[in-house]
Amino acid sequence: MNIQHNSVSQVQPSDILPHPFISIARDFSPYTGARYRTDGPGSGQEFREDILEPRFLQASEQGQKLRINLDGTEGYATSFLEEAFGGLARTYGVQRVLDHLEFQSLDEPLLTDEIEKYIRDTAGRK
Amino acid sequence: MKLKNILGTLLGGNKVWFYVVFLVGLASGLLIKQKLPIKFKEEVDIIPILQLIVTLIVAFLITHYGKQKADEKRAEKDLIIEQLNDCRKKCREVFDEFSGCCDERQANAEQQKLLKQGVRDFANHLSAVRRLIEHSGDSEGLVQQWQELQSRYFTFKAKITDLNWVKDFTNPATRSAAETAWREAEYQLTKLIFEVNRF
Lengths: 126, 199
Prior knowledge:
The complex is a heterodimer.
Chain A: H1 13-16, E1 21-23, H2 24-28, H3 44-61, E2 66-69, H4 78-92, H5 94-100, E3 101-104, H6 110-125
Helix pairs in contact in A: 3-4, 4-5, 4-6
Chain B: H1 6-10, H2 15-35, H3 46-104, H4 109-135, H5 140-161, H6 172-198
Helix pairs in contact in B: 3-4, 3-6, 4-5, 5-6
């Protein structure tokens, strides 16, 4: 049996630290809204600026992936998702966002594909 | 006993017709024996009889297992088509709800919730279709068609939910854009059903 041991120098910070995590329903709102703050409460802009961006930067600086749990809300409008995650990619670049975000959804598994599409689409629009 | 032989298939599994055809065949045989000068050999040759028995067994096995495999494939197809029909139904419901909002020129909180839940249900039916397609094996063409459907779904969802819930319902173009997206999704659903029937 071949067992591999990592030496101390091979261990990355991301191997030790727990993954940073956001649950949109718990940390933001189970009733997500539309695109901009002016559209009403629970907007994509509000989520990005108040919750997502600071934690994304922290995770990115520590070389970790920020896990985002999408379950527990009443559903997402395209405008919310595009503004939150597409907006982040417009500021920090597609690759950096894809490298440091990870999505989880049991309620609606297709959301992961959808969000990745919005992130990638920003590359063409920038 | 089930009528799994060729005659049973031809007669649509109808037992009454099976017995009618059997009796007609028997009567014809007796008639031919009486009227035509046919003579059978008295001694029995074992080799042709064994050949006949082996041929019948092979024919039975091919028919039985071939039919079983065809039945399994059909059941898989029916399951995918059922899910696709659920997708179509959900897509229609969401569009009808949206159309109602256009008539009222607004979407209140309850209607917004219904629309978001509707597109979520649509998405989950699509995910179920994807899993079934992957499970069904030789399905590269189906996966491509499914990806096209997913793309139409994203467009449809955007036309339904990428809106200012207050201002945009006063714009007539909102409904027509959603209707176009709905029709495109419906068309792709139909194409996928045809593709499922073909594979």
